[in-house]
C-alpha cells in the first residue's frame, strides 16, 4: 500500500514547512510518478488510478508556493520536478491575486535562477513549464499596471512627450533587457543563454495567444494591456535573437560534425532563439494563435492595434515601435538572413542526419519565413517600391529553399504554403505585380516550377499509404498556388495591353502557356503508370469495401476535388496543348485496353496481364477525371456553361467542318485534321464501345467499376454542358462543336442516343454490381430531367440494349436488381410511363406485393428474414415511384395504392416490432408520401388529408410503445436511425399544407414530439442530424399563437429543458438561432398577455431560462460569441429582461459583486448602468429589439474586458 499524505489540505494558516516534510513529499511524489509513468503500471489498474488521483490532488493544492519551491530546491528527479512546476503553474493562474506583485516577482526570480542553473540538466518538459510560469508571472505583473498610468502613457505617446514611469512596468522592462543581454553577450554561460531564450519564447507565446488558457484568471483588458507593453519590445527582442543566431553560426562551435555536448547545447539555444523569432513575427499575425478566428467579438478589442496603425500618421508615436519593427523585419538583409538560416540548418541536418537535433528545428525556420511573408496582413503597409522590394526579396529567398531539397512530404507542404503566401502579394493591388522586378519574379517562377515537378515526382514514386493525406494537402496547395499566380500573370498581360502608354509584362502570353504546360504535364505524369507516367503503385494492405450509400462521397471526384478543379483551370490556360496531351494519352491507353481484352478473350489470362489490366484501368480512370475537369467547371448533375477557353481552342485550331463531321459520323478519331475537342469526345466514345463489347460478350468481370463510374460522370457533365447549348448565352461559338452538338445538329441526337444505349447496356449486363447500375441509372435520370427528347429516344427504340431495358422497366421485370437500384429504375420508369396500361400494371404490381405481405402477417408467418426483406423491398419500390410522380400521377398513386397501405401500416409495424429496419423503412415511406407534389390537386379535400394524418399518428403510437423505441442506444449516430427517420417525417409534415389540414399537421407534429420527449435522451442531441431537425420542430411548436397557447405541460417541459441544454452545450450556430427564436417568441407572448392565465403559465416554465442565458452570454459566453451570434442573442436577452426584470437586476448585481478588482467592478457597474439608461423606456417590440441589438454587441465586447475568465 502507498503511504498517504493529506494532499487536499491548504498550505494557508499553518506553520512553515520543514525540510523533513519536504523530503516526505518528494518521496511520495517519486512513488506516485514511478507508478503513473511506468509502462507496467497499467498492469495494476487500481494502483495506477490511485497514483493518478494523488497527483491530481497534489496539483490542486492551494497556496503551494513554499512547498513547491522546497521541492524544486531539494529534488533532481525530473518527474517530481515536473509535478512541482505543474502545481505552481495552476497556482499562479488561479491564486496570484492573493499576493502582491513583489511576492510574485520573488517567485519569478527564484524560478529563473533555477532555470539558469539547471537548464542544461533538466528534462525539456521541466524547463518549458518553468519558463511558462515565469512568463505568466511577468504578464500578470504587467497586466496590473495602474489604469491612470496607462492612460497617461497613451496621452504622452500621442503628444510626443516623456512617458511617466511605472515601477512595475519599469521592472519588467529591466527583466527583458536583462534577458536580451544574457542572450547576446558572447561570454555569457550557455545555461543562462538557454534559460533566457526559453523565457522570451514563452513570454511572447503567452502574450501572443488569446484564448482561454492565456486568459485564465485574468481579464481581457489586462491581458491586452500587458500584450501592448511587450509588443513595444518586439524590435529589440527580434534584433537580439537574429544577432545571436548569426553569432552562433559564425562561431566554430556550431559544427555538428564535432558532436560534443557543448555543440548540442548551442544548437538547442539556436532552436529556442528561432522560436523567439517565429513568435515575434507571428505576434500580430491573423494566421497565428493570437487570432481568435472568424468574427469573434473579442477581436473588436484585439484588432485596435491594427486599426490604429492604419489610421495614424507617420509622425504619431503611439505605434512607433511597431512601425520600426516592421521596417526592420522587412529589410532585405533580414529576409536574406532568414532564408540563409533555413538552407544552412537543412545542409547541417543532411550532413549528420542521425544526430539529436532540436525538435521541429526546420519547421520553426519555415514558420519564421511564412509569418514574414504574411507581415503585410499583420499591419497595414504602404504598397510602395519598398514593399515591392520586400516581395522581391521573399521571392529570391524562396528560390534557395526550393532548390535545397526537402526532408519529406511534410517539409514540401510547408514550402508549398510559403510560396503560396508569397504569391498572394502579386494580387494585393493591381499594380503590385507590375512593381515586382523581373529579375526577382522570373527566377521565382522557374524555381517554383522545378519544385512542383519534383514534388509531383516524389508523390508518384512513394509506395506507402501512410503519407497520402500529407501528399494530398501538398498537391492541393501547389496547384492552388499555380492557378492564382498564373491568373495574376494573365491579369498583368491584359492590363499591359490596355495601359496608356502600353507596357511590357514580365511574362508574355507564350511564357504563361509554357509554365502551365509544364505543370499540367507533370501532374498528369504523376498519376499514370509507366511507361506513360511515373506512378509507383501504393502498398494497399487493407482494401475496404465501398458502401453503396457512401460511394459518391468516396469517389475520387470528391476526394481529390480541390486539386482537380485547380488542374482544370490551369489546363485551360493552354487548352489546345492540353487537348493534344490528353488525346494522345487516352488513345494510347484505350488501344492498350482493347488489345489486352482481345488477348484475354482469345487466350488464358496471366498474372502479368491482370496487373496490366489494373494499371491501364487506373490510368484511364485518372485521365477521364482530368478530362472532365478540363472540359467542364460545374458540379456533377449540374447544368453549366461551356468554357470559353475550350471554345477558343476549338476555334483556333481551324479544323475542317466537313472532315470533323465525317469523322464524328464514323466515330473515327485517327485523323489529325479534325477538331481537337471533338476528337477527345470520340476517343471517349471508343471506350464506351469497348465497355459495351465486354458486356455483350459475357466477360463482365473485365469491366472496371472505377473506370465505368468515372466515364459515366464524364458523360453526364459533358451532356449537361455541351449538348444542345443555347447559342445566345455565348459571345464566341465553335462552328465544329456547334455542328456536332448544337440544337439542330442531327449528330447531337445520334450522340445522345449512343450515350443512352451504352448506359442501358451497362445496366442490363451489370445487374450484380449495384454501384455501377446506380451510377448509370442516375445518369439516365439526369438526362431525362434536362433533355426533353430522352423520353422519345428511349420509347421509340426498336432494337438493342435500349429496347431491352425499356421492356425491363416494368415492375414485374425487375429481377436481379438490388432494392436500392430497383428503386431508381422505378423512379425512371415512372417518368417514362405514358399510357393507362403501364399505370395499371404498376398498381397491380404493388397491390400483389402488398397482398402477399399482409397474408403472411395474418397467418403469423412474418417473423422471418425473407418476409421482412420483401417488405423492405416493397418500401424501396414505393419510394422510387413517389420520387418520380408529378401532380397528376401522385394523385392516382395516392388514391389507388397509398391510402390502403398507410391505413395498414400500424398493423404492419406492430407485427414487425422486432426488426429495426422496418420502422425506419415505414417512416421513410411516409416521408416520401408527404413529399408527393399534391398541393395543387383540387380533388383532394381536407377529410382525406386528415384521414392520412390520423393513420400516421397511429403508426407513431405503435412505434413509441415498441421495445425498439425504448432500447438503449450506442454512442454513434447510426444507432439512432429510427429516431432520425421519424424526425425527418415530422419535419416534412411541418412544411406541408394540404388544403385546410393545418390542424391535422399540428396534431402529427405535436404527437410526434410528445412521444419523442420520452424516447430522446439528452445525449442523443449531441448527434448533428438529430438536433438540427429536433430544434427546428421546437420552433414550429411555438411559432403560432394558438399552437403555443395549447401546448401541454409535457411539451412545454420538453421545450424548456432543450433550451437549457443548448445554452449549456453550445451545439452550433443553427441550434443557437432556433433557441433564441423560441425564447423571443415565448417572451413576447408573456409580455403581451401579461395578467392573463397563459402568460402566468408560460412564465412559470421560462423562469430558469434567464439565469442560464445570462451565464452563457455574460459570465463566460461572450468570449466565444461572434458578432453574428451576439446579434441573435440580443433579442432573446432583451425579451427575457423585459419579462423578468427582478431576476435580471439580481443577476447583474451578483455579477458586479463577484468582481474582486475594484476598477473592474466599477467598469462593469458603469456599463450596465449606461446600457439600462438607454433602454429603460423601451417596450418589447421588434423595433425595440433592433435598437437593443445595436447597443448589445459593443456592450458585450467591452464587458468582456473586465469580466475574468475562470
Automatic annotation (TrEMBL):
Cellular location(s): Cytoplasm; Nucleus
One biological process term in Gene Ontology: protein export from nucleus
Keyword annotations from UniProtKB, A to Z: Cytoplasm, Nucleus, Protein transport, Transport
Principal location listed in the UniProt entry: cytoplasm
Positions of transmembrane segments: none
GO molecular function: nuclear export signal receptor activity
GO cellular component: cytoplasm; nuclear pore
Family, per entry: Belongs to the exportin family.
Full protein name: Exportin-4
Taxonomy of the source species: Eukaryota, Metazoa, Ecdysozoa, Arthropoda, Chelicerata
GN (gene name): xpo4
Amino acid at each position: 500500500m502507498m503511504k498517504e499524505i493529506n494532499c487536499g489540505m491548504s498550505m494557508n494558516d499553518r506553520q512553515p514547512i520543514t525540510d523533513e516534510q519536504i523530503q516526505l513529499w518528494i518521496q511520495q511524489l517519486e512513488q506516485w510518478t514511478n507508478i503513473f509513468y511506468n509502462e507496467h503500471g497499467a498492469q495494476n489498474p487500481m494502483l495506477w488510478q490511485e497514483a493518478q488521483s494523488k497527483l491530481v490532488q497534489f496539483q490542486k493544492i492551494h497556496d503551494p508556493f513554499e512547498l513547491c519551491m522546497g521541492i524544486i530546491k531539494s529534488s533532481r528527479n525530473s518527474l517530481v520536478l515536473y509535478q512541482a512546476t505543474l502545481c505552481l503553474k495552476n497556482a499562479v493562474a488561479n491564486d496570484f491575486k492573493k499576493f502582491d506583485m513583489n511576492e510574485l516577482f520573488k517567485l519569478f526570480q527564484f524560478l529563473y535562477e533555477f532555470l539558469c542553473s539547471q537548464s542544461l540538466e533538466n528534462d525539456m518538459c521541466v524547463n518549458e513549464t518553468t519558463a511558462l510560469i515565469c512568463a505568466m508571472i511577468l504578464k500578470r505583473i504587467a497586466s496590473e499596471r495602474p489604469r491612470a498610468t496607462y492612460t497617461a502613457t497613451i496621452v504622452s505617446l500621442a503628444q510626443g512627450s516623456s512617458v511617466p514611469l511605472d515601477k512595475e512596468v519599469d521592472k519588467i522592462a529591466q527583466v527583458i533587457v536583462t534577458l536580451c543581454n544574457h542572450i547576446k553577450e558572447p561570454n555569457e554561460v550557455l545555461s543562462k543563454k538557454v534559460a533566457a531564450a526559453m523565457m522570451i519564447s514563452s513570454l511572447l507565446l503567452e502574450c501572443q495567444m488569446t484564448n482561454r488558457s492565456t486568459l485564465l484568471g485574468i481579464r481581457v483588458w489586462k491581458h491586452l494591456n500587458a500584450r501592448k507593453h511587450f509588443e513595444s519590445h518586439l524590435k529589440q527582442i527580434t534584433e537580439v535573437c537574429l544577432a545571436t543566431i548569426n553569432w552562433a553560426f559564425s562561431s566554430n562551435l556550431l559544427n555538428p560534425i564535432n558532436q560534443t555536448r557543448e555543440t548540442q547545447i548551442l544548437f538547442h539555444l539556436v532552436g529556442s532563439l528561432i522560436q523567439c523569432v517565429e513568435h515575434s513575427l507571428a505576434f500580430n499575425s491573423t494566421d497565428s494563435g493570437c487570432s481568435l478566428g472568424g468574427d469573434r467579438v473579442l477581436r473588436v478589442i484585439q484588432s485596435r492595434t491594427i486599426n490604429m496603425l492604419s489610421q495614424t500618421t507617420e509622425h504619431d508615436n503611439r505605434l512607433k515601435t511597431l512601425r520600426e519593427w516592421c521596417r526592420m523585419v522587412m529589410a532585405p538583409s533580414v529576409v536574406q538572413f532568414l532564408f540563409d538560416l533555413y538552407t544552412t540548418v537543412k545542409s547541417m541536418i543532411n550532413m549528420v542526419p542521425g544526430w539529436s537535433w532540436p525538435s521541429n528545428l526546420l519547421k520553426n525556420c519555415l514558420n519564421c519565413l511564412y509569418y514574414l511573408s504574411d507581415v503585410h496582413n499583420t499591419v497595414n503597409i504602404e504598397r510602395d517600391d519598398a514593399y515591392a522590394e520586400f516581395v522581391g526579396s521573399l521571392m529570391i529567398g524562396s528560390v534557395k529553399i526550393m532548390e535545397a531539397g526537402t526532408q519529406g512530404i511534410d517539409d514540401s507542404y510547408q514550402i508549398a504554403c510559403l510560396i503560396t503566401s508569397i504569391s498572394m502579394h502579386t494580387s494585393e493591388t493591381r499594380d503590385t505585380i507590375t512593381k515586382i522586378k523581373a529579375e526577382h519574379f522570373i527566377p521565382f517562377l522557374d524555381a517554383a516550377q522545378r519544385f512542383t515537378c519534383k514534388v509531383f515526382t516524389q508523390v508518384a514514386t512513394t509506395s506507402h499509404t501512410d503519407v497520402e493525406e500529407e501528399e494530398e494537402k501538398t498537391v492541393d496547395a501547389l496547384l492552388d498556388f499555380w492557378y492564382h499566380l498564373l491568373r495574376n500573370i494573365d491579369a498583368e498581360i491584359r492590363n499591359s495591353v490596355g495601359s496608356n502608354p502600353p507596357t511590357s509584362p514580365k511574362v508574355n502570353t507564350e511564357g504563361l502557356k509554357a509554365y502551365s504546360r509544364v505543370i499540367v504535364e507533370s501532374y498528369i505524369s504523376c498519376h499514370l503508370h509507366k511507361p506513360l507516367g511515373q506512378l509507383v503503385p501504393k502498398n494497399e494492405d487493407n482494401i475496404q469495401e465501398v458502401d453503396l450509400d457512401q460511394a459518391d462521397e468516396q469517389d475520387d471526384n470528391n476526394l481529390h476535388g480541390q486539386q482537380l478543379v485547380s488542374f482544370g483551370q490551369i489546363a485551360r490556360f493552354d487548352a489546345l496543348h492540353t487537348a493534344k496531351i490528353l488525346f494522345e494519352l487516352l488513345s494510347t491507353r484505350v488501344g492498350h485496353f482493347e488489345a489486352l481484352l482481345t488477348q484475354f478473350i482469345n487466350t488464358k489470362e496471366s498474372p502479368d496481364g491482370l496487373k496490366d489490366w489494373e494499371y491501364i484501368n487506373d490510368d484511364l480512370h485518372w485521365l477521364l477525371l482530368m478530362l472532365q475537369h478540363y472540359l467542364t467547371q460545374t458540379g456533377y448533375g449540374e447544368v453549366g456553361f461551356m468554357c470559353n477557353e475550350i471554345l477558343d481552342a476549338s476555334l483556333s485550331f481551324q479544323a475542317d467542318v466537313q472532315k470533323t463531321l465525317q469523322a464524328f459520323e464514323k466515330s473515327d478519331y485517327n485523323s489529325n485534321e479534325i477538331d481537337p475537342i471533338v476528337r477527345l469526345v470520340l476517343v471517349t466514345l471508343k471506350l464506351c464501345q469497348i465497355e459495351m463489347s465486354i458486356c455483350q460478350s459475357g466477360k463482365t468481370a473485365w469491366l472496371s467499376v472505377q473506370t465505368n463510374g468515372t466515364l459515366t460522370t464524364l458523360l453526364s457533365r459533358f451532356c449537361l454542358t455541351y449538348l444542345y447549348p443555347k447559342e445566345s448565352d455565348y459571345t464566341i461559338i465553335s462552328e465544329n462543336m456547334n455542328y456536332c452538338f448544337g440544337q439542330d445538329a442531327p449528330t447531337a441526337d445520334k450522340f445522345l442516343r449512343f450515350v443512352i444505349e451504352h448506359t442501358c447496356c451497362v445496366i442490363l449486363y451489370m445487374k450484380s454490381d449495384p454501384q455501377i447500375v446506380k451510377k448509370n441509372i442516375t445518369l439516365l435520370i439526369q438526362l431525362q430531367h434536362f433533355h426533353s427528347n430522352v423520353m422519345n429516344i428511349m420509347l421509340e427504340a426498336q432494337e438493342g440494349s435500349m429496347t431491352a431495358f425499356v421492356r425491363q422497366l416494368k415492375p414485374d421485370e425487375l429481377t436481379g436488381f438490388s432494392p436500392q437500384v430497383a428503386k431508381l429504375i422505378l423512379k425512371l420508369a415512372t417518368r417514362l410511363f405514358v399510357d393507362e396500361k403501364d399505370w395499371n400494371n404498376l398498381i397491380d404490381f404493388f397491390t400483389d406485393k402488398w397482398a402477399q405481405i399482409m397474408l403472411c402477417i395474418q397467418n403469423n408467418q412474418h417473423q422471418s428474414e425473407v418476409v421482412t426483406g420483401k417488405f423492405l423491398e416493397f418500401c424501396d419500390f414505393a419510394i422510387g415511384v413517389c420520387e418520380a410522380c408529378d401532380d397528376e400521377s401522385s394523385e392516382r398513386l395516392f388514391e389507388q395504392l397509398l391510402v390502403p397501405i398507410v391505413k395498414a401500416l400500424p398493423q404492419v409495424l406492430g407485427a414487425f416490432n422486432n426488426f429495426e429496419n422496418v420502422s425506419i423503412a415505414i417512416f421513410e415511406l411516409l416521408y416520401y408520401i408527404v413529399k408527393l407534389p399534391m398541393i395543387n390537386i383540387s380533388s383532394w379535400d381536407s377529410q382525406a388529408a386528415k384521414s392520412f394524418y390520423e393513420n400516421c399518428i397511429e403508426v407513431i403510437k405503435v412505434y413509441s410503445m415498441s421495445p425498439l423505441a425504448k432500447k438503449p442506444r450506442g454512442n454513434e449516430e447510426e444507432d439512432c436511425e429510427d429516431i432520425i427517420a421519424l424526425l425527418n417525417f415530422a419535419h416534412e409534415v411541418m412544411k406541408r399544407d394540404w388544403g385546410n389540414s393545418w390542424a391535422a399537421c399540428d396534431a402529427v407534429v405535436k404527437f410526434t414530439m410528445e412521444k419523442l420527449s420520452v424516447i430522446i435522451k439528452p445525449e442523443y442531441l449531441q448527434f448533428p442530424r438529430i438536433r438540427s431537425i429536433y430544434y427546428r420542430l421546437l420552433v414550429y411548436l411555438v411559432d403560432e399563437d394558438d399552437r403555443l397557447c395549447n401546448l401541454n405541460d409535457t411539451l412545454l417541459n420538453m421545450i424548456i429543458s432543450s433550451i437549457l441544454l443548448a445554452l449549456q452545450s453550445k451545439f452550433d450556430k443553427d441550434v443557437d438561432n432556433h433557441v433564441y427564436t423560441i425564447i423571443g417568441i415565448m417572451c413576447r407572448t408573456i409580455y403581451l398577455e401579461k395578467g392573463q392565465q397563459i402568460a402566468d403559465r408560460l412564465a412559470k416554465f421560462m423562469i430558469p431560462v434567464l439565469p442560464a442565458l445570462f451565464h452563457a452570454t455574460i459570465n463566460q459566453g461572450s468570449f466565444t460569441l461572434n458578432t453574428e451570434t451576439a446579434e441573435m442573442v440580443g433579442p432573446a436577452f432583451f425579451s427575457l429582461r423585459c419579462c423578468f426584470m427582478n431576476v435580471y437586476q439580481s443577476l447583474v448585481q451578483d455579477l458586479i459583486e463577484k468582481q474582486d478588482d475594484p476598477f473592474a467592478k466599477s467598469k462593469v457597474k458603469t456599463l450596465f448602468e449606461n446600457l439600462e439608461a438607454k433602454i429603460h423606456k423601451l417596450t418589447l417590440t421588434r423595433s425595440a429589439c433592433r435598437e437593443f441589438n445595436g447597443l448589445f454587441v459593443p456592450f458585450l465586447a467591452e464587458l468582456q474586458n473586465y469580466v475574468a475568465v475562470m
